[in-house]
Amino acid sequence: MSALLTAWIEGYVRAWNSNDPAAIGALFTEDASYFTEPYRPPAVGRDAIVAWWLENRDEPGETSFSWEPLLVTDELAVVTGTTTYPDRVFSNLWVIRLTPDGTCREFTEWWMEHPG
């Protein structure tokens, strides 16, 4: 799954930097769930995920992202990451459930802003 995970995250970063609806949608299964906050219902379904993403998008080139895996199994990956904006830095924790074809069926992200 390491190659699938790497390919998926590279695709995610490309979509993040392009905001291309097709690139975003290609990351997720038709019935995927995308969790963004502990008590907020997830965006469910590819179309809902694309719509949510575009409503909450970062501008292309605004961020850089680095990551490393913490846990990778055949069905689950947990990665840590760092997202850097021009004026802020965030630590990220992602839980990713990929299908055998490399699309995501469930994605959960947590982020914490670094102190100024």
Spans of at least 5 consecutive residues whose pLDDT stays below 50 are: none
Largest sheet: 6 strands, mixed
H/E element string?
HHEEHEEEE
> What percent of residues adopt helix (DSSP H or I)?
25-40%
Structural class: alpha+beta
Shape: globular
Q: Report the average pLDDT across residues.
A: 95
Question: Terminal Cα separation, in Å?
Answer: 37 Å
TL;DR?
This protein has three helices and six strands, in the order H-H-E-E-H-E-E-E-E.
Per-chain topology:
Elements: H1 2-18, H2 21-25, E1 28-35, E2 43-44, H3 46-55, E3 64-72, E4 77-84, E5 89-98, E6 104-113
Parallel strand pairs: 1-6
Antiparallel strand pairs: 1-2, 3-4, 4-5, 5-6
Keywords:
3 helices; alpha+beta; 116 residues; Nuclear Transport Factor 2, Chain: A; 41% strand; six-stranded mixed β-sheet
What does the model show?
- This protein starts with a helix and ends with a strand.
- The chain has a six-stranded mixed sheet.
- It is 28% helix and 41% strand.
- A hairpin with a 5-residue loop joins strand 5 and strand 6.
- The chain is of the alpha+beta class and 116 residues long.
- It has one domain: Nuclear Transport Factor 2, Chain: A.
